[in-house]
Amino acid sequence: xxxxxxxxxxxxxxxxxxxxxxxxxxxxxxxxxxxxxxxxxxxxxxxxxxxxxxxxxxxxxxxxxxxxxxxxxxxxxxxxxx
Length: 82
What we know:
Shape: globular
Number of strands: 0
């Protein structure tokens, strides 16, 4: 299970909020989750668009560098249970 899969399952629950409220996970993970979720959403809407262009669009939308988005991808694709 990837970090993104785990957070997606608990998103919208009190457990999700407690993960960040009680500092079980840092706020940076929540920010990465939001940006990665946006990227995944773009991939679903524009399946034939290149990955690079979707990363660019995400970085422009959130006003961060493309490298930041690639870092988010690494965090969210991290295997929690190998």
